[in-house]
Request: fold
Amino acid sequence: MSAGETDARPSKAEYEKVLDKADAAVAKFEVERESGMKRLQNALHSHPTAIPGVVLMASIVFFALVIGQRFLDPFNFSLIVQQVMIIGIVGVAQTLVVLTAGIDLSVGAIMVLSSVVMGKLAVDFGVPGPLAILAGVGVGALCGWINGALVTRFRLPPFIVTLGTWNIFFALNLWYSASETIRAQDIEEKAPSLAFLGGSIDFLGARLTYGSILMLLMVAACWYVLNLTAWGRHVQAVGDDADSANLAGIRTDRTLLQVYVIAGVICGIAAWALIGRIGSVSPQAGQTANLDSITAVVIGGTSLFGGRGSIVGTLLGALIVGVFRNGLALSGVNVLWQEFAVGVLIIVAVAVDQWLRRVSR
Reply:
């Protein structure tokens, strides 16, 4: 600036005059008041087991009023638990996969193939029962690893992968078993440990099988792992948003592979329970376990889009289906309408899940 030019910038006094005229009011932000329905929606979203718990209690009360003492008999309740035992165990495996925003259509085929391996090794080849059981669980783990490897390494959709392996494992099951059933008499004579989980104890007028107790223990163990360990939080984070989980340092591919392997191991354990439940080894048993497990998971409040759900909810979902089928059967309702009722439950459960998902939008 030359000596003859004047400084056009405002003086300090002029700045202060401008500030004196400025609005001194503190900014306020309007907090939108949530409606009662919105608060309910948020509460149910935070507690995914609330709805299946209420539905289960309402179902019990309804059938107790309609049927009476026959339904409320402790033995009848223990029978319901026995009927949902296999679906409850396989449902634990399915829940782990669904929490990662995947789905496993092959869980039933893995279970049956593992049971056939156990039976053939123990009865036909003389392998000690405990080793045959471990081999069957190992086959389940291998099947789970195949699913996980195809999903993580080849980036294939879980639905397509497990649809394909469902057919592959089922074909291997028929080939290895030669479509022959291993009789209960042969198991009792050569490998009684295979049928161990079919044994039972009497408790307060109810008859609890060891398989039912195993189901409850597995649900408790998986609840602990999912809710109180870092690995469980990683599983849910991968299902909620895999990209964000990866940016947070979670090895998403390794976590997914571990989930599928563990699911296979659980299916192998379910195979042991299946032998105890039916007393024999049949290549045709448990063919609907894949769809039944998805039913239990969906009705139990686990989101098919991943990241939200509960192992306890899956158990409740399996019990809801068991209570409905048992109550309708005692009421003399045709099996056709029992399946109709289960179908309605599935659709309602998915609709509720969609409604709850709007909370995060």
User: Anything to note?
Assistant: The chain has 17 helices and two strands. The chain has a mean pLDDT of 88.
